[in-house]
User: Which sequence fits this backbone?
């Protein structure tokens, strides 16, 4: 048994491998719950996306509300210029002076720094404040865009021609029929826009830790509110221009978020940057939770299914397997704790196994008793056969003594020897207690001694020397093998009788592969031995029965050796 230190380390437990029931159940549970887990994850992603969309929508609304004043101012300026451009009196401006009613407009809209009417070539016809006679405005980016667009145009000018201040200028074309004859323009100082942004910041819907700005089409900041608190920086001009469009666009800036909102696209945009109301970890945690919660629910569902199968199926089956092993060893076991809470089907199966084990133990006991009885009967049969054979041998011995001539006496004596040999074999079989295999070396030793004793005085000078190794054979082959050895010894005794002092050697051994070899030899010259007896025919007959190979020396008739192959096992 391996100790804890000798057991190999495994990264994955054997109980959860795909070769085990638990591992396969875990995989099947994961696959079965996969659609529900995918749906739950999608719900989590949708919730996170909806939360982000709601956040962006809310911030866009607040950003639009914060620039509502600026947008109204731009719309008011545009509407005023449109009305002026369509006034019939303005279309006849070349015939008169417009300063009086331009002054009225300037008074009505105090945030206007300057207002003017000019021809298409830039010559100012009328303005407030007044310009020099026949003054021509230098060509500028806003005028080029206005001519190219031929519609209302706005733009930033670092120094206004009439006000001398940084302004946001606006031009509206003046037409007579389909012909443009000039532009009516107005400008708003950027300082006025700064004030509007400040008022928006302190309005009823303020944005804390935020800053707002107005940028032109080149991304230049033309007006900006004063940053308060931990307001993050505005996006760069390159970031802003890349996100110009007709809808609000959100950007990530250092320390917060930003949004670009069209104020008057494509000329003016409002930009707002603010620090998040919640820390980054809180927002990331909320999003992570909205995604992780469905995943956790999915894992909990798998865990609940696994727990149910483990408690109500896997553990009871393992306990049932252990009980079955105990039953197989013939042990009586009670109900383990795991089976007490098992389903009724498994408990019923356990009772069935217990009943089967009890029935099998009873049958096994009866088989053991029947086998013991059969062994006893078989031993009794061998014993009775031995007794009967000894009785026959005794009768033959009596008959041999009463024979009238030597030839008859010799024949009866040889018959007595063979019957006695068979009796010895049966005696060894029943006395050994084995019914399948017997010791051939014991039978050979007993047969040789019995044969030597039965010869009486003629064989008194024969010294039997035995070198016997351990050898076994089946009962069916033990008897013919004993006869083969006995006939060889008997033939040698016939040849060596009255030959004087002789050593008769009997050698027996069995190879590891089951081949049994024996040899009979004597230390005597051939001239002193008699001729071979008639037992050679019996030796050949038993050799054929056993499939053995026999060897003889014609010059030495007392010599014999044999090789007996092992018994062939039946093929299923």
Assistant:
């Amino acid at each position: 048994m391996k100790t804890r230190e000798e057991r190999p380390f495994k990264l994955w437990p054997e109980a959860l491998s795909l070769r085990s029931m638990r591992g396969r159940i875990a995989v099947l549970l994961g696959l079965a719950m996969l659609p529900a887990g995918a749906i739950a994850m999608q719900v989590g992603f949708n919730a996170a996306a909806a939360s982000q969309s709601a956040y962006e929508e809310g911030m866009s609304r607040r950003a639009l509300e914060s620039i509502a004043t600026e947008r109204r101012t731009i719309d008011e300026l545009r509407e005023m210029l449109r009305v002026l451009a369509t006034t019939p009196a303005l279309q006849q401006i070349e015939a008169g002076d417009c300063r009086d009613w331009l002054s009225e407009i300037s008074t009505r809209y105090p945030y206007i720094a300057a207002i003017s009417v000019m021809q298409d070539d830039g010559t100012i016809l009328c303005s407030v404040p007044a310009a020099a006679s026949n003054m021509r405005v230098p060509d500028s980016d806003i005028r080029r865009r206005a001519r190219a667009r031929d519609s209302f145009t706005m733009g930033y000018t670092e120094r206004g021609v009439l006000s001398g201040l940084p302004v946001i200028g606006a031009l509206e074309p003046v037409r007579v029929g389909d012909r443009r004859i000039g532009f009516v323009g107005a400008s708003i100082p950027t300082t006025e826009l700064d004030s509007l942004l400040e008022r928006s910041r302190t309005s009823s819907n303020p944005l804390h830790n935020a800053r707002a700005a107005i940028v032109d089409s080149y991304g230049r900041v033309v007006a900006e509110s004063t940053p308060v608190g931990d307001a993050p920086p505005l996006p760069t001009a390159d970031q802003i221009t890349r996100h110009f469009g007709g809808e609000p666009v959100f950007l990530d800036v250092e320390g917060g978020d930003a949004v670009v909102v069209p104020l008057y696209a494509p000329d003016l945009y409002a930009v707002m940057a603010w620090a998040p109301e919640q820390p980054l970890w809180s927002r990331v945690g909320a999003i992570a939770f909205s995604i992780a919660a469905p995943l956790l629910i999915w894992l909990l569902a798998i865990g609940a299914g696994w727990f149910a199968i483990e408690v109500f199926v896997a553990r009871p089956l393992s306990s049932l397997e252990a009980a079955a092993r105990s039953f197989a060893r013939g042990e009586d076991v009670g109900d383990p704790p795991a089976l007490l809470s098992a389903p009724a089907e498994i408990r019923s199966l356990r009772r069935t196994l217990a009943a089967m084990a009890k029935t099998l133990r009873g049958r096994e006991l009866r088989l053991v008793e029947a086998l013991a009885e059969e062994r006893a009967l078989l031993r009794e049969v061998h014993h009775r056969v031995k007794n009967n054979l000894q009785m026959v041998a005794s009768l033959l011995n009596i008959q041999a003594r009463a024979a009238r001539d030597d030839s008859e006496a010799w024949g009866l004596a040889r018959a007595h020897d063979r019957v006695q040999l068979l009796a010895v074999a049966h005696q060894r079989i029943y006395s050994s207690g084995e019914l399948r295999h017997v010791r051939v070396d014991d039978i050979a030793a007993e047969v040789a001694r019995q044969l030597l004793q039965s010869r009486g005085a003629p064989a008194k000078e024969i010294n039997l020397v035995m070198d016997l190794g351990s050898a076994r054979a089946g009962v069916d082959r033990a008897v013919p093998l004993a006869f083969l050895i006995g006939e060889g010894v008997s033939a040698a005794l016939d040849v060596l009788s009255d030959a004087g002092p002789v050593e008769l050697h009997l050698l027996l051994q069995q190879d590891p592969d089951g081949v049994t070899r024996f040899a009979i030899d004597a230390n005597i010259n051939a001239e002193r031995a008699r001729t071979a007896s008639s037992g050679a025919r019996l030796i050949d007959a038993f050799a054929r029965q056993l499939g053995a190979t026999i060897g003889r020396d014609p010059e030495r008739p007392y010599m014999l050796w044999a090789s007996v192959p092992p018994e062939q096992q039946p093929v299923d």
Notes: The longest strand covers residues 179-189.
